[in-house]
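Summary: Need help interpreting a holo structure output

Steps to reproduce:
1. Submit the protein chain below together with the SMILES for magnesium ion.
2. Request a joint structure prediction with the ligand placed.
3. Inspect the C-alpha cell block that comes back.

Expected: a single structure record containing both the chain and the bound molecule.
Actual: see attached output.

Input attached:
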Amino acid sequence: MTVSRGDELSFFSYGPQQTRRFGYHLGQLAEAGDLILLSGMLGAGKTRFAQGVAAGLAIEEAINSPTFTLVNEYDSGRLPLYHMDLYRLAGDDDLATIGLEDYFDLGGVVVVEWPERGGGWLPSEALHVRLRHVDHLHRMIDLIPCGPRASEWAARFKQQVFVGTEGTATQSR
Ligand SMILES: Nc1ncnc2c1ncn2[C@@H]1O[C@H](COP(=O)(O)OP(=O)(O)O)[C@@H](O)[C@H]1O
Ligand SMILES: [Mg+2]
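--- attached output ---
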C-alpha cells in the first residue's frame, strides 16, 4: 500500500529482496546527475537499496558499502554510479576539502548513505529516501523528492512500481 502526501511517497518493504527491487526501479529510471540521499539506522537497508540502484543501472559488479574509502565508483553500467558512505565523517567536514563535491558534476548517479554526516554540504536538490525498521523483515520507506527533477523521478517510479491510485494502490512484486 502506498500513501502519498503531495509528491512524497511512503510504502512498505516485506524483505531485503523487495527493498532491492525498489532501488532497481529507481536505477532504471535514473538520469545523469541524479542524486539519492539514503538515510536510516544501521541495518535499515540503505546498502541493499543502493545495490538495487546499481542493478537498475545494469552494473554487474558487486556493490558493498565503501568501508575504507568514502566513495566507490562503478563504471560498467548505463551511467557511472558513485556510492558514498559518509558514516565516518564528523558532520562539519567540508565536502570540498575532502574532495567529494566534484562527484556531483560528473554526469553519473550519486547515492549517499548517511547524508546527515555531510553536514549540510550536499546538494539540496535530491531524492531523499528514508528507511525505517518496522521489525526484523519489514521496513517503511519514504521517498521525499526535493526539487522538480527529483519530483519527476519519484512520479515515474510511482507509475512504474505501483499500479492503481486513490490510496488503494497495489504493490507490484
Ligand atoms: N525489508 C528489508 N529491507 C532491507 N533489508 C532488510 C529487510 N529485512 C531484513 N533486512 C536485512 O537488513 C540488513 C540491511 O543491511 P544493509 O542494507 O547493509 O543496511 P544499512 O546499509 O542501512 O546499514 C540486511 O542484513 C538485510 O538482509
Ligand atoms: Mg550501509
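--- end attachment ---

Reviewer comment: The chain has one domain: 3-171. The beta strands are 3-5, 8-13, 35-39, 71-74, 81-85, 109-113, 126-133, 139-146, 162-163, 170-171.
Status: needs-info
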